[in-house]
Each structure stands twice: as C-alpha cells, then as structure tokens.
Amino acid sequence: MKNTDNLQFETKALHAGLEPDPSTGAIMTPIFQTSTYVQAAPGDHKGFEYSRTGNPTRQALENNLAALENGKYGLCFGSGLAAIDTLLKTLSPGDEIISTNDLYGGSYRLFTKVFEKFGLKFTFVDLTDLANLSSAITEKTKMVWVETPTNPMMNIIDIKSVADAIKGKNILLAVDNTFASPYLQTPLDLGADVVMHSITKYIGGHSDVVMGALVCKNDALAEQLYFFQNSCGAVPGPMDSFLVLRGIKTMHVRMQRHCENGRQIAHFLKDHAKVEKVYWPGFENHPNHNVALSQMRDFGGMISFSLVGNRKEDALKVLSGTKLFSLAESLGGVESLIGHPASMTHASIPKEEREKSGVVDSLIRLSVGIEHINDLIQDLEKALNY
Ligand code: P1T
Q1: Which of 137, 170, 351, 365 is deepest in the core (most CB within 10 A)?
Q2: Which residue in 52, 109, 274, 356 is the catalytic one?
Q3: Could you confirm whether 379 is annotated as catalytic?
Q4: Global confidence as pTM
C-alpha cells in the first residue's frame, strides 16, 4: 500500500488507500458485488468472509476517508444517521451527551425520539459560547456533539477550544463535519476524537448516494465501532461505495467552485433590499468569523438568509420562484438546491426550540452548486422580485 501520509489533500483524494486491482491491474477499484467469499478451509480466506463484515470496495473507500480526515480508521454506513446511531451505541444508559442546539433536525430526532428512550440524556446548548459547555458538564457527561458549521444557521464552533475544555475528563468529542467536508476542515487535527459525515452531501457530491461515515484514530474506539458496524449491520453496498470513491476524486475541485460561488452569492444577498440577514461565516461581522478563519480552509457553499418582514408566504414565493435552485432537501451536490428549514429539514424540531436558534419562518437555505455564477445570481434575482 502506498504511504500517502505526507501528501496534500488533492493527491490523497486520488491515491490514499487505493491500489490497482491485483488480479487484473484495473486502475479503478472494482465493484465487488458479492455477499460472500469462498474459503479454502474454515477460516482460511483472503481477508474477507462476508460483506456485512467487510467488502473490498467499501474497504477501499473507508481507507481513503481515513486518510482524508487525517485519521487511522474509517467506517462507512448506510446513511449519515446510521453512522451517528452506531457511535451512540458505544454509550450506556445513564450517560449524558452535550450537543450543539443548532443542528440537523434528523440528528435531533435520533437523539430525542430514539436514544432518550434507551436512557441516554441529551442537553442542547449554544456551543459558540464555551461558558455554556462548562456549566452543562456533569460527572455523567460522556460525549460532546459538535456540528460545525451548524445546519442551518451557519454558526461556527471552535473545535480546538471545545477539545481543550474537556481534556482529561474522559469525554469523547464527536464532530459532524458534513457541512465543511474534509477539504475545508479536519477536526481530528484540532483535538476531536471522532468525525462523522453524511457522505450523501459534499463527499459523494452528485446527489446519487445516501451514505455515512465515522473516522477516528484511537484503536480501542475503532474496535468498538467495528463491533457495532458488524453486529448491527447498517453497512452500504459496493455499488454505492464505488460511486462515492468516484465522487471523492473531484472533491477538491468541486469544493473550490462551491466556495467561490458561495462567496459571490453571499455578497449578492447581503446587498439585496428584500433580504434581512445573511448567515455565511465568510463575512467579517459574522460572530464566529475568526474561528472559521482559523479552523477552515474556506467558507463553503452553504448560506442561509431571512427576509425583511419575516413572512413565511414571502419565503414560499422565493422557494417556488427559482428555476436553477431546485426545491429539495439535502445539500452538497453539484447542482444548486434551495430549502425551507422550518418546514423541511428542521420540521422535527419543535417550533419554539427551532426559533430560539434562529430558524424563523422566512429562513431560506441555499446549497450553492457549481453552475456558472451569473446564471445562479440571475435565478435568485428573479425569484426575489416577488
Ligand atoms: O441524510 P443522512 O445521510 O442520514 O445524513 C444526516 C445528516 C447528518 N448531519 C448533517 C449535518 C446533515 O445535514 C444530515 C442530512 N441533512 C439533510 C438531509 C439536509 O438537507 O440538511
């Protein structure tokens, strides 16, 4: 296996964990569409026994992702939520988790509607202010869940400061790195213990796969995660693993364009008379701009904005007025999407909770794609002309 440890992200994306197929020389990792592997005698096999436990296409992807996050172990799952589900299964009834209060609605639902029933306790606080973290920690705290940038308010949480604040306390720091992608941010380098991705988004990049991943460095944690991956079985198939490997090869190029287009659209919206507020960490007056500068390579392609007057009916006009920005859940694909968090991605969070973190009725979320910037701005200009 090539040693890619000292190579740049762009080179690792193409080479890490990937070798030509030994039987044919195929440069692309084959799709090993098989459930099982023939053994010469019981236990005498070539490293694979059954595809829930391990599959060569999935393993190539897992090794590649581990390298991209500067980790040691990568594990893939059938969705981002399946990855979080697996991580939470390493905890025990009575354990407490402190989570950021602004996060993907599906993660919130998994925490409160599924795992609370099994005895885990979640506290939701604004983690942009570390005083909130200190006052939420108890003797039972076993994990801090950080999503940064947050979905959909684009708050930035200082990963290194959170890691420093819980050092030596036997608390695991987990970071949902979905909005940034490993191209923009590598939380393990900042002191996180485990990174989670909805691969469905920027890593897959083409809106054609649902998948999740966990990456860590610690041997004991990895062993536990492999145990639950195999025992609970929420693994992705080889075809999807191949599609994601293919998507990863252009991630850095896609991310550069997402960031460039995002920057121009954020500025266009800021100057628009119908727009009340734009949430994008690249603005100097964004409350966490300096943290973003210190821990991210660029600011990404996600932007949220609210409308003057904060009327839902105005938001609905914009949402139905765009032609290139398609009205859909999800994000991070090459094509631009527009969404209404309050009634779509964050509908599972009670209105009161949602509004506390800024998800008001006129809030609109954009996943800026890699189309030509002029076409995207024209599309928004027309839709805002309601
Ligand atoms: O959809 P899935 O692959 O299971 O990933 C869940 C998930 C986890 N974390 C973050 C930050 C996410 O944004 C998501 C999925 N989000 C959407 C579908 C969305 O439109 O926001």
Answers
A1: 365
A2: 52
A3: no
A4: 0.98
